[in-house]
Amino acid sequence: MRIFDPTLYFITDSTGFSEEEFLNRVDAALRGGVTLLQLREKNKTTREYIDIAKKVHKLTLKYNVPLIVDDRIDVALAVGAEGVHLGQSDMPIDIARKILGDDFIIGATTKTVAQATEAYAQGADYLGVGAIYPTTTKVKTVLTPTQTLSDICNAVPVPVNAIGGLNKDNINVLEKIKISGICAVSAIMKASDVQKAAHELKKAYLALKGDEKSL
């Protein structure tokens, strides 16, 4: 049974941080109310990825938050993570599902309704859709219109999260869209007070959805 709360989905970025500072920031984000955490490392070796994943998983377990590993099914299995997130150029979701089994959370990046419905049909548990705003976390950013995001939400029965340059001051564009949560990287990772940033972003999202009681 794959149970998770997509409300505040934090995607890490260790660039420019020592390992100690990175782990401290991850811990602070979890204290601030992160409900789902993705470890994303594009430039580490397999051994380095496994090593940091073990340390991050120790933190997420403390807060009972599922750990999602970006791209790497092998790393996710090696550290006993709860899930994996796959992009359009990664392993097809149906093949990943055969390898990982029914209890593993599998997320997918989609930018069109066609990609979304295919990902759902292949067994994705949630979708990440964006970028809503320009973002500094990737060299090339392809923006996704909010109408497309809305269309995707209406096309699939699984949770859909908005991603891309979102922060507490600009999420109002998502007000009438049936998203299940928001993804954040820089708004939390690069904040001077990580715990406060996570808390305020979650509060702003819940207020947007009229669900402040869940905070």
What order do the helices and strands come in, and which of them pair?
Layout: E1 8-11, H1 19-31, E2 36-39, H2 46-62, E3 67-70, H3 73-79, E4 83-86, H4 93-100, E5 105-110, H5 113-122, E6 126-130, H6 146-155, E7 160-163, E8 181-184, H7 186-189, H8 194-208
Parallel strand pairs: 1-2, 1-8, 2-3, 3-4, 4-5, 5-6, 6-7, 7-8
Helix pairs in contact: 1-2, 1-8, 2-3
Commentary on this structure:
Helix 1 (19-31) packs parallel to helix 2, helix 1 (19-31) packs parallel to helix 8 (194-208) and helix 2 crosses helix 3 (73-79). The protein starts with 7 loop residues before the first strand and ends in a 7-residue tail after the last helix. 39% of the residues lie in helices and 16% in strands. Strands 1-2-3-4-5-6-7-8 form an eight-stranded parallel barrel, surrounded by six helices. It contains eight helices and eight strands. The radius of gyration is 16 Å and the shape is globular. The model has no long low-confidence stretch (mean pLDDT 95). The protein has helices spanning 19-31, 46-62, 73-79, 93-100, 113-122, 146-155, 186-189, 194-208; strands spanning 8-11, 36-39, 67-70, 83-86, 105-110, 126-130, 160-163, 181-184. Strand 4 (83-86), helix 4 and strand 5 form a beta-alpha-beta unit. The chain is an alpha/beta fold.
Rg, alpha carbons: 16 Å
Q: Please state roughly what percent of the residues sit in beta strands, choosing from under 5%, 5-15%, 15-25%, 25-35%, 35-45% or over 45%.
A: 15-25%
Report the average pLDDT across residues: 95
Q: End-to-end span in angstroms?
A: 25 Å
Instruction: Walk across the major sheet and give the strand order.
Output: 1-2-3-4-5-6-7-8
